[in-house]
Write a structure and sequence with these properties.
Helix content: 25-40%
Number of helices: 6
Order of helices and strands: HEHEHEEHEHHEEE
Distance between the termini: 31 Å
Strand order of the largest sheet: 3-2-1-4-5-8-6-7
Strand content: 25-35%
Length: 224
């Protein structure tokens, strides 16, 4: 899933650059952009974004996650534009990031609206905001709760609370209320047999939201 999410983020930033496609094949066009990854965990997404050429700050409230992320990053000497800090989004002193990322975090927070506001506050006007999470549907309850926590026992029981899952339209409304506009929403379709993940369009003809019935990623822009 990490690779698919990274490709989605890169593609959106390339589209916003308005450069000819051939000029976005390398890393020069994206180099130096400031990115904050909120709830970075072990740093897998932060590392992937740094390898694109951006300057990445991974942020996590748990000290142990930050230490794990730092140790893992040491295994790749090329990750010179990657740093980690223990903090929450609300407490982070740095502001005006070009890109704000938060992947599979919002479904764990007590105050989703406050969390979304904190993400938007970190972004400079016109900046891109990327959030991935889980839809509140029966399919998501089965795929993201029952299967990993109760059937396969690969995730500790109680890790996810289905009642905290957020529908894409709810997330868009939250963003709109705090000064950001949703520009795209795609489904993240998991293929456990081949250990792959692919993007899916939100709608299929007249079938609304068919592609975002479980996991999804949303791209938004902070208004000027």
């Amino acid at each position: 899933m990490n690779r698919t999410r990274t490709q989605f983020i890169r593609s959106h930033l390339a589209d916003l650059s308005r450069l000819p496609p051939k000029e976005t094949l390398g890393r020069d066009w994206i180099r130096g952009r400031r990115v904050v990854d909120i709830g970075c965990g072990g740093g897998l997404a932060s590392e992937s974004l740094a390898r694109l050429g951006m300057h990445v700050l991974g942020v996590d409230a748990a000290r142990e996650n930050v230490e794990i992320a730092r140790i893992h990053a040491q295994g790749d000497p090329a990750l010179t534009d990657l740093a980690y800090v223990q903090s929450t989004a609300e407490q982070l002193e740095e502001r005006d990031f070009d890109v704000v990322v938060s992947l599979e975090v919002i479904e764990h927070v007590a105050d989703p609206m406050g969390f979304v506001k904190s993400l938007v506050d970190l972004a400079k006007p016109g900046a891109s905001i990327f959030i991935s999470t889980m839809n509140r549907t029966p399919l998501a309850a089965f795929i993201d709760v029952f299967v990993p926590e109760y059937l396969l026992n690969v995730v500790p029981r109680g890790t996810h609370d289905y009642r905290k899952f957020i529908k894409p339209e709810e997330l868009s409304q939250m963003l709109q209320a705090v000064g950001a506009e949703t520009v795209d929403t795609r489904g993240l379709i998991l293929d456990p047999i081949n250990n792959q993940c692919r993007l899916a369009d939100r709608d299929l003809g007249l079938l609304r939201n068919i592609g975002v019935q479980a996991n999804y990623i949303l791209a938004a822009r902070k208004k000027h």
